[in-house]
Amino acid sequence: MIRFLSSTILVILISGMFVQNVSAQTVDELAAKYVNLPQVQKLMNDMFSPEAMALQFGTNLPPTVKLADDKLLKIGTAMSTEMEKLRPRLKDVMIEGSAKTFNKEELDALIEFYNSEHGASVMAKMPSFFRNFMANMAPEINGIMQNILPQITKIIQEK
Fold it and tell me: Model pTM?
């Protein structure tokens, strides 16, 4: 019985030290943990994919310019290759930004959420959500930009 109690106390003490170590993580460490979550990294993979880059490029073309899908994919592949070079810097900026923006409790909550079944599902659906959003809104956004381009040009040229 004494051996059981001392083993139990030892487990409780070790567990307590583990909890203290987890909660003793700095905001920078938690930000890095958040940014390096597999779900966040997958979102970055999806953002930099040739298909996503092609879609982004295609939605930013003026309405009068039409490119064949194979050409868009070639452009997307070239853009993806170049954007991947930014990935280490992007991660650093995301970690720094997360550490400056969120406190420990918020980072813990983000980590917990994205490690949950629902959080992982939400993150997996984000690329599709953004593709659909851009597919629906890009023509309107481009139209507005074309309408205000003369005003923007005039503002830039003002002395």
Answer: 0.66
